[in-house]
Design goal:
The complex is a heterodimer of chains A (119) and B (112).
Chain A lengths: L3 E4 L2 E4 L5 E7 L5 E8 L3 E10 L2 E4 L7 E2 L9 E3 L8 E8 L14 E2 L3 E5 L1
Parallel strand pairs in A: 2-11
Antiparallel strand pairs in A: 1-3, 3-8, 4-5, 4-9, 5-6, 7-8, 9-10, 9-11
Chain B lengths: L8 E5 L4 E6 L8 E7 L6 E6 L2 E4 L4 E4 L5 E6 L8 E8 L14 E6 L1
Parallel strand pairs in B: 1-9
Antiparallel strand pairs in B: 2-7, 3-4, 3-8, 5-6, 6-7, 8-9
Classes of the chains: A mainly beta (119), B mainly beta (112).
């Protein structure tokens, strides 16, 4: 079954304590990304990766790091979390390869989300 | 990426057909129209995409007029389980970028 798996689902931490949210996909997708979702702001892209060892900033990258050492994994790292990073986080993956059943449309697969609270 | 505009919320009753319209006046030639569905505390799920005319799958239909400046997602005979946020996105995989730009979506509430 095609899956994007995030862990943990829920996390409460204190300001400044480094944390990592893991993301793994089993579809051999090249493209992976992280989004955060906040009320009234929708989903905003944090970082993305187009392949192994290729990462780039999205719209709201400040305070986050990522790495892509393996194709299937794309962890999100908060080196010094702050309360304004309290949010719902989603990892997503999609294929860059052609041809696909969706043609030029982007079919992304999302994880179940990680609800992070920083106190 | 073309900006989209859709209603903030809609209410319906079970068994009715629901049509959610999205406007995207600045859609580019290469852009596709894609709709995602998101249930509370879950990630968005791709439900349908189209380029022009009408597309139908097991979940929904998508109507796109000739000028492509708008599109309508049609959900036939909705049930309580269709209560979700529906996002209209416009973009393309051309150029190798797969970034999705989400707006605030349309909150659909289905009641008995």
């Amino acid at each position: 079954e095609a899956q994007v798996t995030q862990n943990p689902r829920y996390l409460i931490t204190v300001t400044g304590k480094k944390l990592t949210v893991t993301c793994s996909q089993n579809m051999n997708h090249e493209y992976m990304s992280w989004y955060r979702q906040d009320p009234g702001l929708g989903l905003r892209q944090i970082y993305y990766s187009m392949n192994v060892e290729v990462t780039d900033k999205g719209d709201v990258p400040e305070g986050y790091k990522v790495s892509r050492k393996e194709k299937r994994n794309f962890p999100l790292i908060l080196e010094s979390p702050s309360p304004n990073q309290t949010s719902l986080y989603f990892c997503a993956s999609s294929s860059l390869s052609y041809p696909l059943r969706t043609g030029g449309a982007i079919e992304a697969f999302f994880g179940q989300g990680t609800r992070l609270t920083v106190v | 990426l073309a900006k989209t505009t859709q209603p903030i919320s809609m209410d319906s009753y079970e068994g009715q057909e629901v049509n959610i319209t999205c406007s995207h006046n600045n859609i580019a030639t290469n852009d596709y129209i894609t709709w995602y569905q998101q249930f509370p505390s879950q990630g968005p799920r791709f439900i349908i995409q189209g380029y022009k005319t009408k597309v139908t799958n097991e979940v929904a239909s998508l109507f796109i007029p000739a000028d492509r400046k708008s599109s309508t997602l049609s959900l036939p005979r909705v049930s309580l389980s269709d209560t979700a946020v529906y996002y209209c996105l416009v973009g393309s995989r051309a150029g190798g970028g797969n970034k999705l730009t989400f707006g605030t979506g349309t909150q659909l509430k289905v009641e008995l």
